[in-house]
Amino acid sequence: MASTFGGLNICSAGLYSSQTKLYTANVNIANAAVKGYSSQTVEQSCGYTTSVQNGVVVSSVNADALTVSQEQSAYLNQRYWNEMPDLGEWETKSASLAQMETILDELEE
After folding, report:
1. 41 with 71: CB under 8 angstroms?
2. What is the DSSP string of 52-109?
3. Considering only Cβ atoms within 10 Å of each terminal Cβ, which end of the chain, N or C, has fewer?
4. Helix, coil or strand: residue 39
5. Distances (CA, A) of 24 to 2, 4, 73, 76, 78
6. Contact of 61 with 46, CB cutoff 8 Å
7. Is residue 75 exposed (0-12), middle (13-18) or buried (19+ Cβ within 10 Å)?
8. How far apart are the first and last CA of the chain?
């Protein structure tokens, strides 16, 4: 005969796993409008447990949240990192030209 608390343990493990997924969904919704935010996902798996109680083998399945990871596109990451040096170059040129405009405006006055 299986333990009464064995079923409760399975239920509580499932609830904790679902709670982790709900918290992650809450974070994704709260940060949906943030520029550059990439959504998070929860990796979940089934854990098998076996035990011997009073000469009877009892096996159960527990849902378990393994990790919380961010969803990112490899293509977009590659494009981003390829364009960053060009962005830095043009930001530097823009700042230099703005300083030169300031100096030339002072000379004309």
Report:
1. yes
2. EETTEEEEEEEEEEEEEEE---HHHHHHHHHHHHHHHHHHHHHHHHHHHHHHHHHHH-
3. C
4. coil
5. 34, 31, 19, 23, 26
6. yes
7. exposed
8. 97
In this structure, what token pair is assigned to residue 94? 């823009």
The confidence score (pLDDT) of residue 21 equals 85
CA dihedral of residues 55, 61, 62, 65 (deg, nearest 10): 140
Both tokens of 3, joined, read 């333990």
For the chain, how many residues are written? 109
pLDDT in tens, 47-97: 666 667 677 666 666 666 677 777 777 787 888 888 888 888 899 999 999
70 and 38 Cβ atoms separated by less than 8 Å: yes
- pLDDT, average across residues 20-39: 86
For range 9-13, the mean pLDDT: 76
Structure tokens at 56: 């009877």
